[in-house]
Amino acid sequence: MKKIALLAICAMFSNSLFSQQWDGATNLTDHIYRNGKVSIGTDNNNDKLNLNGNFRLTGNSGNKIVFGGGSTSPVGSTIVGDDGNFHFEFNDSKLYLHPYVSAYFGDVDPNPQLKNAFSMGATGIVGMGTDNFYCSQCSGYRLFVKDGIKTEKVQVEIAASNGWADYVFQKDYKLMPLQELQSYITDKGHLPEVPTTEEAIANGVELKEMNILLLKKIEELTLYTLQQQKNIEEQNTRIEMLEKKISTSK
Fold first, then answer.
1. Which tens digits make up the pLDDT trace of 76-106?
2. Which of 16, 28, 211, 242 has the fewest CB atoms lying closer than 10 Å?
3. 107 pLDDT band (50/70/90 cuts)?
4. Three-state DSSP class for 55?
5. Residues in contact with 119: Cβ distance below 8 Å, sequence separation at least 6, in sequence order
6. Highest mean predicted confidence (pLDDT) among 13-17, 103-107, 161-165, 181-185
7. Above 80 in pLDDT, residue 22?
8. What single DSSP character describes residue 145?
9. Residues with Cβ < 8 Å from 211, sequence gap 6 or more?
10. pLDDT of the residue at 169
């Protein structure tokens, strides 16, 4: 009997020791706060919230998780004034991670560039500084960045050997005669295949394609130079022969 009573006391003590203690309101309308640490699916209690498993944030828009100091306090019915250092937010079918942004009304954001520090669309497209990555000419691109990118190295992959410009040096390559090139430049105001200023401004330039095109023009220029050098050497040979004839005829 004493063993049963002792086991019952231990069970009550254990239940009291590990039960969740809340210091917030007991009704269903106000917030609930907890002073301790919460662990779900794990006995790890290193942080305020410890989770072992998946976390799902559902809803149409306006769902937020705030990281860092501060508090989350609804203001009115349409404004949310969230403190904290970072916001993790699902809104308008896009996922955002951004530094603190002051309260905003719906789509009217006082600092959209800060708000769009990092965003991801439903199709897996990622934006940095922008969430405007749906356009008629944007298919095939996965990363959209507003403003500059500073990095020490960029490597662009070439899909196949025929994607490079060394075909210019093949024997069957037809190099445009210089007279035709001169006429084209006089008429068009730019090199063949190179986009005009208006086209570059309107459509931008594709880095890989532009580098390949520039390499092609450099290789063509090399062929023109070699061709001119050959002509010069032939002319020099003829001049030397004429000079010898003239000197011997005297």
1. 323 344 455 777 777 777 888 877 766 543 4
2. 28
3. very low
4. coil
5. 94, 95, 96, 97, 126, 127, 128, 130, 131
6. 181-185
7. no
8. E
9. 156
10. 94
Question: For residue 192, is pLDDT > 90?
Answer: yes
Residues in the chain: 250
Closest alpha carbon to 98 in 114, 112, 109, 80: 114
Identify which of 156, 98, 106, 159 has the alpha carbon closest to the alpha carbon of residue 131: 98
Sheet of 86-91: strand order equals 63-67, 86-91, 94-99, 118-121, 126-128, 143-145
d(CA 83, CA 103): 9
Q: Which residue has the tokens 């609804």?
A: 74
Contact 97, 86 (CB under 8 A): yes
> Distance between CA 87 and CA 63 in Å, rounded?
10
Tokens of 229: 């050098």
